[in-house]
């Protein structure tokens, strides 16, 4: 087993920004995370009790962060393992890595351009042999503890006393350069094959999904949307919020957009609605559009066995891992509820002209989303009605030329999966 990574923050600032932003975001969420190295990329996973629980199913209070860093982010990337897909999986403290990156940042800001090297090192003195459990019946299988050795060099200019140097017979130069080698060891716990296999990316229900391509953080509407996301942070006693996305199929003259995104608080003695009034690039699933707006085309879906083609490119290269599953029909449910309303006639007409996707999540999960929004360039918000929410961030990394011509480099991405905490 061998692992060696090299990155240079001064020569490739965008690549280093992706690595640093990923580690800092994970460190802000939980103390430890799983690093899964393969031949093609590094995947950083932050889940509750990552190495012991099956994380392929989202549960309430279990936000999961999945980050992908392509191998070409690093100037050198060497992974050697006997496992399938050449995989090395380990659990380590992201706080320790973040502190090392801060020291490396200071070195770069002072004009240094040295490489940051990360190696997996065996640490026999850190491993204690355990032959039996407390009852003395069977040997315990303990995860081996290794270290991520992180090193970089820093050149420092020092001012020396010219007279003292001359008395010692040296050259009378006022400035000298001293090279300091920084070395750190971050304890890591290697995961067994069975433990690594349990850590699987969550599956999202695609039958009632609304996706919004949010305003670019660096664009015209970025500052306004950032204020919209962070508005809820003013209220420290709010625990849960409801995200509400609505599509109006019949655009009224009084509405500037046929989409609406709101943050709703309805758990205290008062209620609050925070609405986004700027532009929204919505990507609603074609099946929902056919059901609501183009009812005569239902026979075509029946002939196709109920399968409707989805624009995969619009969902950022299948970044959402989707599994078809049964769910409630929100349109029928909404219509049923409206029948009990005193104004059933007008309300039912309004329900027919709109499609609503809502989910209740923790407010602290939404705070994680606000931090992610600041760090990345392209962000997509997906709401699976009454089930989960996904905040998907990507960082374009330009293009590269090879023998086949120019092609875009693989995007770095961070996906935050949030389960509902209660039904809508």
TrEMBL record:
For this protein, the record's InterPro entries field holds:
HUS1/Mec3 (IPR007150)
Q: Where in the cell is it found?
A: Nucleus
Query: Any idea which UniProt keywords this protein has?
Result: Nucleus
Main location as per UniProt:
nucleus
Keyword Transmembrane recorded: no
Please cite one Gene Ontology biological process associated with this protein.
Answer: telomere maintenance
Kindly give the Pfam families that the UniProt entry links to this protein. Answer: Hus1
Q: Name one GO cellular component term.
A: site of double-strand break
Descriptive protein name:
LAME_0G10022g1_1
State the organism of origin: Lachancea meyersii CBS 8951
The organism's lineage is:
Eukaryota, Fungi, Dikarya, Ascomycota, Saccharomycotina
